């Protein structure tokens, strides 16, 4: 009853800025409805899989700041964003499930995260900053200098999903989590038109911007839906266009980048998260078996994302497991796109520049595809990446497509991604 009271309070707050809680809209029509016969990997972890999980957890053991309980986004670099905090919460659930940590350590770690939520400094709009110091919990920029940088509605949506999962598995902490989230001003995150908005803050000026693109918008919207907030425009797949690669139709964001200034890469991550966490079901229909899906559109889109990468291996003998990832030098972060800027199989930086030589077989994506699709191809992928780790530091980002050389950057996202894939194998949709 207390939980519903908290959600009711969110609704009252939102009505004050023109946002109304209401039922989930029906999915769009016209999307290819054909789906693979769903057969993911399920069951207790074997000895080798437990070793993989333990390797991933070493990243968290090494990168936890003892004074704050927060975990570095990148190995030995003391900052984090909201997606990293979300990934940490899921990794923490996996560590408890696999008995990599004791119940007492889990309780202590989770309590320190909740304490951060209760007291974290917020931007002048009353929402979480893009980046925080893991050593002192203050707002910082990407260079770890004190700064009010702005906010990301997409990252916050990811965090809302992880918090909902955390409450589901730890109901004794639900009220504490609710109180932390109720500090936020959701009117800065979701417009009256139901669109997700991020913001940049520079020289004291606030610059809101429409945030997201097809796939990641729909995923982030599930976070707001979890908390009773409906971002109308972002639930709908429209506008979209269709590109055919190797005979497989892919949907991509139909908004003109000349007017939206938004990079629109098609990549694996949001569709994998939708499978691992929601089984490609609608938010109000999560009770179905993992073998079927109540959101046919998203399930079909995910299958297309998988099939087109498998087809590249079959036709060109190029191992393909594409996501976004860190690289050791400039530009430091790229999207390995299945399709972007009118071109298939392109690797792009945030500024739209091309860096095809940096394309990886992502360790994280390979593990998650392996968990969701039980096929010969995902077996091959896992065989390829299962040695890409440092035994004392965790899993590397992946192997380069062109040379098979390791990209030895080590991040929270990749190591949490391995743990999430293995957690899905054991418990099903999160």
Explain this structure to me?
- The chain starts with a helix and ends with a helix.
- The protein has two domains: 1-23 and 42-236, Glycoside hydrolase 144 (GH144) (Glycosyltransferase, Alpha/alpha barrel), CATH 1.50.10; 238-412, no CATH class.
- The radius of gyration is 20 Å and the shape is globular.
- It has 14 helices and 14 strands.
- The protein is of the alpha+beta class and 430 residues long.
- 41% of the residues lie in helices and 15% in strands.
- Helix 3 packs antiparallel against helix 4 (103-119).
- Strands 11, 12, 13 and 14 form a four-stranded antiparallel sheet that branches.
β-sheet strand percentage: 15-25%
Shape: globular
Which fold name fills CATH's third level, the topology of the largest domain? Glycosyltransferase
Return Rg in Å: 20 Å
**Fraction of residues in H or I helices:** 40-55%
Sheet having the most strands = 4 strands, antiparallel
Per CATH, the superfamily of the largest domain is Glycoside hydrolase 144 (GH144)
Intertermini distance: 23 Å
Structural class estimated from helices and strands: alpha+beta
Q: Please identify, by name, the CATH architecture of the largest domain.
A: Alpha/alpha barrel
Poorly predicted tracts of residues = 1-13, 18-35
